[in-house]
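Lab notebook, bench 4. The sequencing result for the construct came back, and we need a structural model before the next group meeting so we can plan mutations. Quick request posted to the team channel:

Model the 3D structure of this chain.
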Amino acid sequence: MNVVAFSTPRSPEWRWRIVDQTGDTLEESPTGFATIAAATAAGTERLERRRERDRPAPARVPLYRRR
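Done. Here's the predicted structure in C-alpha cell form:
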C-alpha cells in the first residue's frame, strides 16, 4: 500500500489517499491540508494505524504448556 497526495482545481487543498498496488483507492482523507507535506504525513500516520489494525494477533502458548 502507498500514500499519495493530490489536489484538484475545484478543491485546491491537499488531500491524502491510500492506494493498493493496482492503484485502487482504499481510503481517502476526509479533510484538506494546506501543504503537500502535511497531507502526506497525515496519510502515512493513517496507513501505519491501518497496518497495526490489520496485523494478526500474536500466537499464545496453551495454558497446559506454560510454567
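The longest strand covers residues 2-6.
Will bring this to the meeting.
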